[in-house]
Amino acid sequence: MRKADLTRDKLLDAASVAFCTLGYSNASLRAIAKAADVDVALISRYFGGKLGLFRAALESAFEWDEILDAARDPIEVAIAKYADAGTEAHQVSAIRMIVMNASDPEVGDLLRGVLREKLIDPLQERMGGRQAASQLAMFAAVVLGASIVRQTLKLPGMAGVPDAEYADQLRYLINAAISFDGPDA
């Protein structure tokens, strides 16, 4: 791998951590460059600035090809990704990116647009049917909500339970959400 590619990857990794833990507005370019052990000017060179760096981190966070794979069950993919609370993937993830940045006035609309383009619209098309939008919205609400309850609020009953038990809880909640059959959406 070329040095330029390694530098770009280091910046993207450091930015992903910063945007998932601090949010866009609180993440500093100097701190990101320091964490990547590179000169801050390289952010402009490779990404055009903070917004370009955020966009790249966002694209990376929402790159979730396995959930869009028709041969795989999206429920089991989500459970596998989020049931192991100790994984690095859980700490820097689409969920954390959403939670930390969706309400940011500078990047909230961008985040929602990339989320729809990369995950929501393809999953809705894959699901099909008259209730696909409602079921997918509830699927997202369950995964986001359960993650917040376990990782952020650390509520007993979800936090601290073995990963296999949490996987069963998540599976139950997701199945309930996607079995919704209300009025046409």
Automatic annotation (TrEMBL):
Residues 5-65 form the HTH tetR-type domain. Residues 28-47 bind DNA. InterPro entries: Homeodomain-like_sf, HTH-type_TetR-like_transc_reg, HTH_TetR, Tet_transcr_reg_TetR-rel_C_sf, TetR_C_16. It comes from the Bacteria. Keywords: DNA-binding. The keyword Transmembrane helix does not apply. The keyword DNA-binding applies. This is TetR/AcrR family transcriptional regulator.
